[in-house]
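Retro notes - structure team

What went well: the batch runner handled both jobs without manual restarts.
What didn't: labels got mixed up in the shared folder, which is why I'm recording both outputs here explicitly, each with its sequence directly above its tokens.

Job 1
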Amino acid sequence: MGSMFRSEEVALVQLFLPTSAAYTCMSQLGELGLVEFRDLNASVSAFQRRFVGDVRRCEELEKTFMFLQEEVRRAGLVLPPPEGRLLAPPPRDLLRIQEETDRLAQELRDVRGNQQSLRAQLHQLQLHSAVLGQGHSLPLAATHADGLSERSPLLQPPGGPHQDLRVNFVAGAVEPSKAAALERLLWRACRGFLIASFRETEQQLEDPVTGEPATWMTFLISYWGERIGQKIHKITDCFHCHVFPFVEQEEGRLTTLQQLRQQSQELQEVLGETERFLTQVLGRVQRLLPPWQVQIRKMKAVYLALNQCSVSATHKCLIAEGWCATRDLPTLQQVLQDSSSEAGVSAVVHRIPCRDMPPTLIRTNRFTASFQGIVDAYGVGRYQEVNPAPYTIITFPFLFAVMFGDVGHGLLMFLFALAMVLAENQPAVKTAQNEIWQTFFSGRYLLLLMGLFSIYTGFIYNECFSRATTIFSSGWSVAAMATQSDWSDTFLAEHPLLTLDPNVTGVFLGPYPFGIDPVWSLAVNHLSFLNSFKMKMSVILGVTHMTFGVVLGVFNHIHFGQWHRLLLETLPELVFLLGLFGYLVFLVIYKWLCISAASAASAPSILIHFINMFLFSRSPTNRLLFPGQEVVQSVLVVLALAMVPVLLLGTPLFLHWQHRRRSRRPTGRQPDEDKSRILDSSDTSVAGWGSDEEKAGCPGNSEEAEFVLSEVLMHQAIHTIEFCLGCISNTASYLRLWALSLAHAQLSEVLWAMVMRSGLRMGREWGVAPVVLVPVFAAFAVLTVAILLVMEGLSAFLHALRLHW
């Protein structure tokens, strides 16, 4: 429990790893996660370290893994998660993994290349078949520059003026988006000395690159003249057209078409065999790649950790330094002995003294991880500071529930989180790749408590989907008011709204046992009542929350022995906070307890009293709550203002006085005394102090650090300004509890009135209630989940997060 409320005690350890067993030892330490290593080669370039070659080999393998993973994804397959616990492979296995990986990658490249080539050839054959089988009719006429009409035959009979000219043909296919531009450019460039026919293919052809079906435009161009033909070929090349030979005779075209179809069929069989072989290769990749990725990633991490070690003078062992939890030191020693037993030389661990600030170590489990993440998102505390996460387990869901209080909405959230908690060990739930689902699943215990606390505050507000429930008997009696008042028929006809007077005997029987009386849901002034109640409740919760945060600092000061901060910081902060805003909370509670219903009409205003408190004035129309109130308020304001200079100058002046007193002391202490003093401290070495430990020594005594008064004053001034202004702004910021709670309640009320109430009314009027209520309830459920649970829940979560930060 100590590690949960305060970070664990951490020690600096020095490891002596035999060269032959260094990899095994480091691998086992990485599996257990017991040590955070320090870089002893910070001055050495990353390219000059001992194991840089092994790191590069791992990185090259990772690049090959990325290629294989991309090929698997391209084929529409998914890599399964690795099974079991995989350790970092021995260094001798790296060559085997590299050879098998390169062989698989080469096979994939070859098969992919063959597949692309076969697909391109099949696509060309299919396009050629489509051009020949499209049914383009041969042109019978064309225009000529000598004035021939369009109906004159293109092929003149023998003995005509054009008997020496031969008509040529260009056939091919082009993308549909380029067909119009191609036809227009051909007509303009050739001046009409051609006849072009464009038709869309009847069937879609598979694209050889993307694999998606696409439509093509086939064309048949007839022309005469060598220069016209050169222009046509240049233009079709510019448009990346597929041009095929065209046989004029019908019999020749049919023969060619039959040959093309036969070749396409043979090519499809070869392509099918190629794809089956590709499937086999991808199956092997699916089976081998996931464990290899984990193993190589761990191997790379081991070599990167070994690069942080320094080499001993004899080059027989590696020296590493790292931080380790004190309670894990026996486990660390045992792991090193087991890992280095095969090498014949046992690894050694020493605990060495150091005055550097150790890292913060807080162990978490599946329940506390989400709450610790909320705290760490703002900032990680210093070593051995109080950890606010255990208190956040209660305060965060509670502040959320204050803004989200509704029994029905809280129950839905609770059930959703409970389902995730019960299914948390199922592999399908753990390995889900959806990012939104992963976010909800990682915070399932947080959602569970948020829903549970929302149910609790929903009972206090007496709201379930914005409807009040009558669990106990109401504390208000309408019968008593009717019998003791002059409510005649005429009075009831003239007054649609009736008032229950608590001063009338028997009307108010006592407070509701738990929460708000359900009779308030029928009152016209329901919103005004909740407005006053929730506003005051927000101020009380805010001041209590801030005071609790200041009190937590007391445990830090006591733990670190900073007794002067208790008097010079914590006490002035508490006096300032409680003298002003704690007094406001006192006024609220005092007014609740001491003002009865009989004197409620003349009750004084707390807000006016609080304003007059700072102005040192008095309002004649606002009576005092208790005798001597003005004197108490004046004393509290003066006392709070007097704490500001104490908070600003107290700690810097004390530290300055302490530094001057320390500087007057004689500094002739012997080195042996310093050494024995360090060894007797809490950071005492486990196995003594050796020459290697002195070589990796720590900074000198912190008492010799230079004291700069201006820096301390600046830091304390920032802290003072932040605290004093924060007390005012944060108290006002806690009013968001009031605003968000009212907004959630009113939004629930509007949704009920606009959807469910309208549906119930229509069902009663039309006499088909079941038929009407099914779609109405479906709409109500969808809007409730989408708006009130998701959107309002996210809004309340963000505001609760801001209040904690």
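Job 2
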Amino acid sequence: MGNADTKLHFRKAVIQLTTKTQPVEATDNVFWDQFWAECSIAVQDVFALVPAAEIRAVREESPSNLATLCYKAVERLVQCADSGCPSEKERQIVLNCTRLLTRILPYIFEDADWRGFFWSTIPGTKKSGSLDEGADENEARPLAESLLLTIADLLFCPDFTVQSHKKNNPDASEEMRSIDSCEYIWEAGVGFAQSPPLNYIHDLNRTELLKLLLTCFSEAMYLSPLSDSQVLNPWVSFFCSAENRHALPLFTSLLNVVCSYDPVGYGIPYNHLLFSDYREQLVEQALQVLIVTLEHETGSAVSAALQALDSSSSNPPEELEPAGPDNLFVNYLSRIHREEDLSFVLRGFAQLLNNPLIQTYLPRSTKKIHFHQELLILFWKCCDFNKKFLFFVLKSSDVLEMLVPILFYLNDARADQSRVGLMHIGVFILLLLSGERNFGVRLNKPYTLRVPMDIPVFTGTHADLLIVIFHKIITCGHQRLHPLFDCLLTIIVNISPYLKSLSMVAANKLLHLLEAFSMPWYLLSAPQNHNLVFFLLEVFNNIIQYQFDGNFNLVYAIIRKRNVFHQLANLPTDEGSIQKTLQKKKKKSGISRLNSTDGESMEGSRPAAPAEPGTLKATLEATPGIDKITEKSQVSEDGTMIALPRSSSPATPPHRGAINGASDTESNSERDHEVFTRSQTSRSRMSSVSSTVAWTANSDWMLSWKSRLPLQTIMRLLQVLVPQVEKICIDKGLTDESEILRFLQHGTLVGLLPVPHPILIRKYQANSGTAMWFRTYMWGVIYLRNVDPPIWYDTDIRLFEIQRI
């Protein structure tokens, strides 16, 4: 009964607010206290009892009342934080104000005229509880700053969100003023050794405050992607600045809570069905706050400072004021350097990302986490902002602990249109890793795990696993994955010079891709499709020139499919043949129609499923082309990489100098612009639909790239080995391929091949296009994952659209 009365009183207060035509004075505490001081209102009840339509009505018809409500709620939070929340009633007021502001803020952000409200000062007021000498300064503090600083204070409030260290219960307000929050870090890990006792009430309170913090940061959702992407989120900028005295302990707390979380616990079957795991809610919220706060300007002084931090060989003393980015969260992340800290972070990522792969005899007996997309974004940011972490990941086989779950997610999501963003982030991470030599070298480790995946059974290395899954994505994925094809092949190109021994399964998959991409009708379907052929030929050339010994399976596959290379060399380029092929093209529907004998899938695997009808998805920005997000580096003889200028190719044999980075099928390409100019064609690549209307293949265009096909090395290999293999087969009457493989295994092409070409690696390079893609993807994930309560549901989001499948 009490609970019903509580809701009734609260609802009456809301109705009074929405029906009052005259402004309510800020001094009328009896009226305003109805919203937070009477009793506890659950967050779900706040969302149900304060409907969206009524918030908008107050905003339009009684703007001063909405402004006063926000101001009074922040004022009460400030008062409670200053007092240290000594009583249960004050803690309840904090939670009620937090829930109410979480409900209202999105409706402030959706109206452009209101967005500046929280950054204005309230005339004639001063921050309660401020010291006398600081009163003037506090009078001028915008409401947003007061709110953010108060949330930070409350996140380190003894007996509310952290364990009190004082035994004799001193004055709570004195403790809040003198608190050193570095002693109250929430969890052991980076920079903190003690693990405080678990307290689920503290975890719940932290979660509510972090939810409000995330809502403050979500103003970014209400700005269109076309608005200036270089302008940083003012809420994030202030919260992560030196103005926030809790920046370091809070960053460390969030990171440590995420990386130390163990969803399985002691491994008791079905324990997650018997007990509520309040830590999981906190971990999800901490992770989302972390990925939002770790933002910085692309190509700015911040980037330069980050690079300077990475390149400095000496580690600055911890007690010095940090140099580098103004965003202290980015700054602190970029400065993590101790081996034990890097190991702790990597172990945390690996444990959580591998969680859905855990196999048990009892179905659904272990807890499965669902925040893997946020984890992948955080892992990306760690590698991007902290090169020491990236090199630590790559220096041992621990990188494979990250690779396997990423490949698992890619394979699992390939048929689901609602998970296109997950496919992109996984591929971007692998592209980033593939730019480092160590990644290719680590992939030679045998793959012995048996994670059930819908792929053919094979015996081989982690490189084989990667190639088999990439083949599956290309041949069995949905249409919206086409822009990723050149990214996938770029990764294979980057690792190819280091692959010691491909399995027969992987070798056949590569040849099948070449066969598919070199079909005349496919080559003529879009102006950049031929680049996929260039990438695959580069893979074969790298392996033949640098890893011939040990790759007899691939050599055998090339010999068996030699007609594909001969057909490529003899592609007709006359207008008549092109028109005939274009007529046939209309009967074709895609790469997947080419038969690929996959054989039996792994035991226990299930096919990749499309999205359930009605599934919500957030739209994404188009990703820039591969030539925009990578820069070419040439590997010198001593193993160092030399960056190549974008405008020119290295001084290499003619067939190599012509291989430029392929371009994504949803973006512009400088190189192809030159080709189009020669063939009197110009067009936008933002839409593959419009591209087919605006562009038609012709003879000049075909000749421009066919003459550059790097076929010399492969043709020389075929010229030498095919007669030898045919002779052995005739002389010995061989029908068993194992004998041929044995012959190839002991063969050599030393002195018979052209001079080895320099190894060309395409390293990921950040730019404004990818920064905007990451922003829309990140906020889309956060929007869809926060459904209880649905913080942003039915508000006027502009950064992306929510669509039903």
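One thing worth noting from job 2: The two ends are 43 Å apart (CA to CA).
We'll revisit the folder naming next retro.
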